[in-house]
Input
Amino acid sequence: MPVTDNEATGAAPASNEQLKKCQACGRLLPREDFFKHNKSEDGLMCECKECVRRRHEAKKNVSRNPLAQFTARQLMDELSRRGYKGELTYTEVKVHKMKLGEM
Ligand SMILES: [Zn+2]
Output
C-alpha cells in the first residue's frame, strides 16, 4: 500500500496533515515548528515556536519598558495630550521596533 509507505517515510512536507496553522501568525508550518502542549487536542500549542518566542520577548520588553504595553495610537494620543510634540518622532521609532517584535 502506498499510504503506509508515505506514513513510514514521513518526509513529505507538502502534506497538509503534517502542517499546522499558527493561530498567531496564520502561517502553515510543520508540526515540529510548534512546541508540545499536553492540554491541547493535537498535543501542540496553537502558536508556532517563533510566535511563542516573540511573545516572550514582547513580555520582557514590557517589564523593561512600561511604554511597550501601549499601542502606537495610545502613545500618540497620550503624548499629544501632554504636548510632547518634540518627542513624538523618537517615540514613533521605538513603537515601530516593538511592533516588529510582536509580529
Ligand atoms: Zn506563528
Remarks:
- The longest strand covers residues 44-48.
- The chain has a mean pLDDT of 77.
- Residues 1-47 form one domain.
- The pocket of zinc ion is lined by residues 22, 24-25, 27, 47-48, 50-51 (CB under 6 Å).
